[in-house]
Amino acid sequence: MLRTTLAATAVVAALLAPTAARADTGAATGPTGGAIPALTDARGRTLQLRGWNVADKSHRGEQALSGITEKHFRDMRAKGFNLARVLVFWDDLEPRPGQYSKDYLRRIERVLDWAEKYDMKVVLDAHQDVFGPAFGSRGVPAWATRTDGLPFTPHPDDWFSEYFEPAVQRAFTHLYEDPDLRLAQARMWRVLADRFRDHPAVLGYDPINEPMGEMREGEDLPTAARRIEREQLTPMYNRIADAIRSADREGWIFVEPTPIVGEGVPTGLGRIDDPKIVYAPHFYNSTMEAGGDYDPSARWVESYEAAVTQYPKQYQVPVVVGEWGPLNNALPNMNRFYREAMASLGRYSSGWAGWEWCYGGGYCAVDGAGAFRTNKELTAEPYAEAVAGTVRAAAYDSGAGVYRLDYDSARRGPRATELSLPPGAWQVAARGRAVVLRPRPGRVVLLAAPGARVTVTVTRG
Questions:
Q1: Cα–Cα distances in Å, from 422 out to 122, 217, 305, 360?
Q2: How large is the average pLDDT for residues 195-209?
Q3: Average pLDDT over residues 211-234
């Protein structure tokens, strides 16, 4: 036993022996060796992010974010997830022009501290639904909402249709085009980035959730969306990127197209002039959003994947899907949907955040007791959180319960590749010059020799 322990120690020591300070991971080859680059961490390792949105839209002011607790992060990590897209609201941060709430910033920091405690990464999302409180929602402050007196009629049974009310559409135009509102939005992001740039949990920033805009006479929706993305969202993201970079040089910036991309229409976004951009579309289908079942014959997943991969291939940026998940998970075809969606996301993205981690019905990932709701358990798969090397292939066969990772370990820099396992019994085997360590339940660390070809197989049961 002692000889075995000493031998293992010697192998680990040899594998960890320094060769150079600079990482050489080849991460630009993409999440699974394809044409889309992979997201990387500060050490140059290829990342996979799996997680959920964490939201509290109900509380504000002194009660803001009180609906988010430590339990959210403890439970997510216990089920194998490592990402939280945390919703923050401009109207809470800056209730009056130029006056930023120190209490709200402390509340955000408390949430980030919980994420750090459970080794989770956070994307801070400046969320808006139907622009903001001027229209009975959350997001852009009322003082920054300009409608030119155009009408607004609420649609309580179809909230998304409120985006097409004249007052809401005009408010977006003013946000994108008025110099003082442009400056206010950029300044708000500079405040956030300056406060949280050094927090270990912060991976990056999502400047605006599901941006929309004003349609012109004679335009159909896809045409309007492409114009808004090209002429208004692209310069907005460049402005905000500059503002963030004045405070934080390292955080990733997650840019979203309009939600119309969910209909399988490629985005009109242009280049964002920043070296750490992530394309962050949402993955929703209008039929399933209305509570309907998945229709495999419509080939929506395939058409979405074909459309959504065009931008990251053209501009060579990683993809992280910021929201996804149907309203009614128990319909007959939903098991197939989750399996096909997870396979699709694994082909092109560096990760995703489902909507949402809450305890109840509807979109919630888990019920009141913390158990996965029907078919949501299919989102919990083995995956490689961080790969110290070039990923050749990575995929999970949900039917067989087998995850396989092929990679070439880095010749220089970090050696530790980290895997996450969902609850249950999993067998882990590695071929190549690598040692498998299991430091705690649900986590696996592989230490590979420099330049080794490594194959890892994780088998259920």
A1: 20, 51, 26, 21
A2: 98
A3: 97
pLDDT tens readout for residues 66-98: 999 999 999 999 999 999 999 999 999 999 999
- The residue-averaged pLDDT of 265-281 equals 97
Contacts of 329 (CB under 8 A, 6+ apart): 338, 373, 374, 375, 376
Three-class DSSP category at 308: helix
Q: Is the Cβ–Cβ distance between 250 and 256 less than 8 Å? A: no
Question: Tell me, what DSSP letter sits at residue 76?
Answer: H
Phi first, then psi, for residue 91 (nearest 5°) are -65, -25
